[in-house]
Amino acid sequence: MKTNFLLIVAMMLISSFVSVEAQNRLPYVVRGDISGCDTVYTLPDRKAEFPGGMNAMYEFLNDNIKNSVNFVPAMSSHRILLKMLVSEEGAILEAKLMMPSSTSLDDELLKLVSTFPDMIPARYGNRDVCSYLIVTLGYE
Questions:
Q1: Number of domains, the chain
Q2: What's the pLDDT tens digit per position in 59-115?
């Protein structure tokens, strides 16, 4: 009985140290020069966003997407993860699909992302920073 109690206490202490260590990590990844950003924040205080918010981005996509025969069914039947690197100024430096679906859909989405207006950049503390923005499109 005492052994079980001591084991539980030991596990709780170890897990609390892991949690404190994880909380003290800096919320960014330094990787040298990534498309013009020397530091890319993965946990900014405020994420980068499309001007007007997510609804405005979906509206932009709906207004500008070509309604081709292959595009609409692929968009409605797959979940698409779009990963964008947004600069301190709000420019999209990189865009890639994390879960590609079909060649025509992938190409169309990446072309459309290249026409996005400048994003509202992420913030960390009191300054704008480079960050990744991952957006889910479509359905599962």
A1: 1
A2: 888 788 765 444 555 555 667 888 999 999 999 999 998 877 666 777 888 888 999
Contact 34, 85 (CB under 8 A): yes
Q: By residue range, what is the domain housing residue 130?
A: 27-138
Q: For CA atoms 77, 113, 54, 41, give the dihedral sign.
A: positive
- Taking the C-alpha atoms of residue 104 and residue 82, their distance in angstroms, rounded to an integer, is 15
pTM of the model: 0.71
Does 12 fall in a domain?
Answer: no
In a domain, 75, yes or no: yes
Q: Dihedral (C-alpha) 60, 62, 66, 67: value to the nearest 10 degrees?
A: -170
Is 20 a member of any domain?
Answer: no
